[in-house]
Design a protein that fits this description.
By secondary structure, this protein is an alpha+beta fold. It has a single domain, classed as Galactose-binding domain-like (Jelly Rolls, Sandwich), CATH 2.60.120.260. It is 17% helix and 36% strand. It is built from 3 helices and 9 strands. The strands form 2 sheets. Strands 1-9-3-6-7 form a 5-stranded mixed beta sheet, with no helix packed on it. Strands 2-8-4-5 form a 4-stranded antiparallel beta sheet, with no helix packed on it. Strand 4 and strand 5 form a beta hairpin. Helix 1 runs antiparallel to helix 2. The longest helix has 17 residues. The N terminus is likely disordered. It binds calcium ion (3 copies). One calcium ion binds next to strand 3. One calcium ion binds next to loops.
């Protein structure tokens, strides 16, 4: 059943590619948890799969709703891939163990490059505010959501979470990705990658799930 859904989604994606230039659009995609962010030494992935999105990205914002007694244990990334294949994932770090202190509980904020303050510089409690992603990403990682601009919006959007310290654990209740797109000419679409994905089906998603972290 799952495989047939994935195949249908991929077919819709393919048809979208063949339909020509896409109109500008705004998408709001939501993942509903709960997803436990265990202290098990592993990254935890919350995936939104949507191959029907059309056009190239002009802006991405991310809302996270996380229950956690000590959010500064957490590293949080947004990751996107058009196909799910190894080596195609683009990561942006949103949050890097920001030193909020004990008074900050939970994390329910919007990450937006156009906000006026980085969450690194904000004083908790953060409330329901909008912040730029961390200004102190892990070495080699981007902290710019604008890095997605120009990429095709379709594919897999994943919130990637890691809890660095015990004993407090948390739960991802939900996250939302807001994506603005503009139309792109048909010649800009990477058809060979899409064909490979169609041939590999759901197995490609499962395989990449284990190996996406570089
Ligand atoms: Ca970190
Ligand atoms: Ca933005
Ligand atoms: Ca912890």
């Amino acid at each position: 059943m799952k495989k047939s859904i994935a195949t249908l989604a991929a077919a819709m994606f393919c048809c979208g590619l063949l339909a020509g230039p896409a109109a500008a659009a705004t998408y709001s995609l939501t993942y509903s948890g709960p997803l436990t962010i265990a202290e098990d030494g592993y990254f935890h992935y919350a995936d939104i799969v949507d191959f029907s999105l059309a056009g190239a990205i002009t802006d991405v914002n991310v809302m996270v709703d996380i229950e956690h007694y000590w959010p500064e244990d957490l590293d949080i990334y947004l990751a996107h891939s058009l196909t799910g294949e190894k080596g195609t994932w683009k990561y942006v770090q949103l949050y890097n163990q920001e030193q909020g202190g004990a008074i900050q509980e939970n994390l329910n904020v919007l990450f937006n490059d156009q906000a006026t303050t980085s969450i690194t510089d904000a004083a908790p409690p953060y409330g329901l505010g909008s912040y730029q992603p961390t200004s102190n990403p892990e070495s080699g990682r981007s902290n710019l959501l604008t890095d997605y601009n120009g990429d095709l919006a379709a594919g897999i959007w994943s919130l990637v979470l890691f809890d660095n310290a015990s004993p407090d654990i948390g739960t991802l209740q939900s996250f939302r990705v807001d994506i603005d797109t503009a139309g792109v000419p048909q010649t800009a679409v990477p058809l060979p990658g899409a064909v490979v994905f169609l041939g590999s089906g759901l197995g490609a998603l499962v395989g990449v799930r284990r190996s996406r972290q570089k």
